[in-house]
Every structure is written in structure tokens, then in C-alpha cells.
Write a structure and sequence with these properties.
The longest helix has 31 residues. Helix content is 76%, strand content 0%. The chain is mostly helical. This is TetR family transcriptional regulator. GO terms for molecular function: DNA-binding transcription factor activity; transcription cis-regulatory region binding.
Length: 214
């Protein structure tokens, strides 16, 4: 059971106000953590404000002081997820000076993030019964696509290839990675996560050879 009640003490009006702000931040973080805990155990359709409130040991109206609705809470988690995935992708890009190798590392980072935070990934990409209007999430997703597109453009330039069609190529790679991850998460890929990662790397290598050597 998650309990988020601060015992921090502070003196004076400023100390009291700072303590209240800290308590609100702690409770907000606790509410988000509780939603993820329920999702991991029971799936996103089972997540309700009432269950979250029970887990953090507050009443539902207190949860509504932080989030207007379950959808509002989910959007916050989705934004957190996209930020985390972008960070993993950018770290992978920085791991190699060679853009071709960097793209392979980025594909591995995609799969690792998905399998390490499956609840967030499901919410981000509309799996497990979660859905949002595309417009709500387009900006966050485009940042990841831009990171991949920039690296692919570098690889194409290295081989003297035209950068025309780079976004189409990124969409193909994105669809391949996501498709394999989704199949593994649904239990429909023999070999599970490990096989998804192996096939993802093989597929990205194949795409790169076709695009760079063709």
C-alpha cells in the first residue's frame, strides 16, 4: 500500500508554505505512482480514481484536486513516458559517433524502454485499452521521430545518398519496432521480449543495408 503523508516540519510562514508545496508534489507523484502500480497489476482499464485514492490512503476528492479526471492523469503519465523514451533514444544516439551504429543503438533503446516500462509504453502508444486523440500526443512523438530522422539523414549523407524520403523511412523503422514490441507485450510472439529485441535489430540492420547500399 502506498502512503504519501509528509512529516517534514518547517518554521515560520515561508517554511509552512514550502512544506505544503512539497507535500502537494509528493502526493501528486504518489498518485501517478499508484496509477502505474494498478496498471501493472490489473491493466489500464482497471485504473480508477477510487482505486488510486484507496492506494494512497486519501479520498477521491483529494485526487481530483490534482487531476481533473482519469484522462488528465493518463496524459500526464504519457508525457512523462515520452520524455523518458526520448531521453533513452538521445543517450543511445550519443553513444556512437557513427550514425549507422547509433541507429542500431537507438533501436535497442526503444525496445529496452518499452520492456522496462511496459505500463507507460502501453499508455503512450494506445495499447492495453488506452486511447487518446492523436493531436494530444503528436508533439511528444514527433520529438522521438526527429531524433531518429536526424541520425538517419547523417547515415544517408555518409554514403552519399539523398535524404529525400527520410521521414518515410523513419515511419517504416518506427512501425517495425513498435509492431514487434506490441506483439511481445500481447504474448503473441514466440520467444517474448528477447525475440522481439533480436528481430528488431535484424530488421533495422536489413532496412539500413537496403537504404544505404541500394
Amino acid at each position: 500500500m502506498l502512503v504519501f503523508r509528509s512529516t517534514t516540519e518547517g518554521g515560520g510562514a515561508l517554511g509552512i508554505e514550502e512544506r505544503r508545496r512539497r507535500q502537494r508534489r509528493q502526493l501528486r507523484d504518489g498518485i501517478l505512482a499508484a496509477a502505474r502500480e494498478i496498471a501493472r497489476a490489473e491493466g489500464w482499464p482497471a485504473v480508477t480514481i477510487r482505486k488510486i485514492a484507496a492506494l494512497v490512503e486519501y479520498s477521491p476528492p483529494v485526487v481530483y484536486e490534482h487531476f481533473d479526471s482519469k484522462e488528465d492523469l493518463l496524459l500526464e503519465l504519457v508525457r512523462t513516458g515520452y520524455a523518458g523514451q526520448l531521453g533513452a533514444i538521445e543517450k543511445a544516439r550519443a553513444s556512437s559517433d557513427d550514425p549507422e551504429q547509433a541507429l542500431l543503438e537507438m533501436s535497442r533503446a526503444w525496445c529496452r524502454f518499452a520492456f522496462e516500462a511496459p505500463d507507460l509504453y502501453q499508455a503512450m502508444y494506445g495499447l492495453g485499452g488506452v486511447s487518446f486523440p492523436v493531436a494530444e500526443l503528436r508533439k511528444e512523438g514527433e520529438k522521438i521521430a526527429e531524433a531518429m530522422a536526424g541520425t538517419l539523414a547523417e547515415a544517408l549523407a555518409k554514403y552519399g545518398k539523398e535524404e529525400e524520403g527520410v521521414w518515410e523511412k523513419v515511419t517504416i523503422a518506427w512501425g517495425t519496432l513498435h509492431g514487434l514490441v506490441a506483439l511481445a507485450m500481447a504474448g503473441r510472439l514466440p520467444g517474448g521480449e528477447g525475440e522481439a529485441e533480436r528481430l528488431a535489430e535484424r530488421a533495422v540492420r536489413g532496412h539500413l543495408r537496403a537504404w544505404l547500399d541500394g
